[in-house]
Each structure stands twice: as C-alpha cells, then as structure tokens.
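Worked example 3 (structure in, sequence out).
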C-alpha cells in the first residue's frame, strides 16, 4: 500500500511539473520602457532594445508561473545618442562592468480580474532588491495566424535609482530618484 501511495504522489508531482509550459518573449511585440522626471518639470523616456525573457506557467493559473528577464544595458535608447552614451558610463549603469539587468520572479498573487502583484528580485549594477510590479494579464490567443499561441501582459513599477547605486545627481533636482518602469510583453509558446 505504501508503494502505491508513493507512486501516486510521484505521478501527481510529475504531472504538475510537466503541466507548466515555457513561453518566450516575442521581441517584435514587446517593450521595456522607463520614464524619469527631468528638472522637476518634464520627463525623459527611454527603452532597452535588447532583452531575453521567459514565462514558465499556464494561463489557467498564472499564480504558479515564473518570469525571468535579462536586459542588455548597452541597448539603452532615449533617442539622444549623447545622453545614451552618458547613461552607459559609471555615472549611471556602468555597462562595461555591469552589462545586464535581471529580474527573477518570486511570487504572483491575484488581486482582481486579470490583475496581479508580481514580486521578484531586480538586479542592477550587481545590486539586488525586491520589487513589486502591478501585472495585468492581457489574455491568451490560441493562434496568431502563424500557428503560434501567445500570452500578453503589462507590468509597471517604480524604483528608486539610488537603491541600485545609480547616484548621478545625488540631490535628485535635475534627475529624479524615482524611475517608472513599464513593460509590455507578448510571449510565444515555446516549440
């Protein structure tokens, strides 16, 4: 009887493990954007053009899923080359020493219809801090016209750049300390 019970538990664990599906970010339909207040009167917006990301989970229960993301910091793009080059220096991201920013999710909690709190660890300049994103589930598309299944999400949060040693203008007068991050994501089911 004990062997049957162990076999039953092992089978349930295997089914649960294999039920999770890997989804890869579709970079043609996704964006990693940021916005920071400038001089207290306006905002500078930017984005990162190169990144990799996965979601491992199912649309039936997103709370059991896991997000992992890696951003190439050298791909920062504010549409002003001189500013982008400055952002790559030690004043900001120091891309030579810290070429990537990463996010690893720790939990996803449902808060309403298609609304979630996505908690995880964000690493910038080799400093890791917990962050919480407001996550909106956009839905599941069974066929995008090319035989691909797609999932859609939007995630937003605000981080204090000083927490990650991005300390240029320590007064925060010219460049605000709070940076808004907005990530629009479309994932394709891995084949």
């Amino acid at each position: 009887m004990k062997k049957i019970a162990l076999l039953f538990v092992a089978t349930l664990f295997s089914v649960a493990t294999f039920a999770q599906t890997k989804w890869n970010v579709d970079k043609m339909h996704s964006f990693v954007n940021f916005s920071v207040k400038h001089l207290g009167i306006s905002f500078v917006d930017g984005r990162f053009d190169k990144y990799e990301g996965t979601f491992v989970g199912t649309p039936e229960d997103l709370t059991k899923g896991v997000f992992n993301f890696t951003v190439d910091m050298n791909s920062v793009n504010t549409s002003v080359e001189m500013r982008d080059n400055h952002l790559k220096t030690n004043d900001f991201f120091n891309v030579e020493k810290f070429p990537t920013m990463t996010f690893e999710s720790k939990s996803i909690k449902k808060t309403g219809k298609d609304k979630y709190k996505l908690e995880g660890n964000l690493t910038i300049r080799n400093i890791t801090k917990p962050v919480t994103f407001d996550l909106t589930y956009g839905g599941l598309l069974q066929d995008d016209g090319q035989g691909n299944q797609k999932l859609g999400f939007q995630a937003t949060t605000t981080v204090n750049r000083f927490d990650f040693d991005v300390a240029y203008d320590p007064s925060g007068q010219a460049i605000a300390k709070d940076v808004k991050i907005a990530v629009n994501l479309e994932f394709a089911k891995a084949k």
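Notes: Confidence is low (pLDDT under 50) at residues 9-18. The first helix runs from residue 2 to 19.
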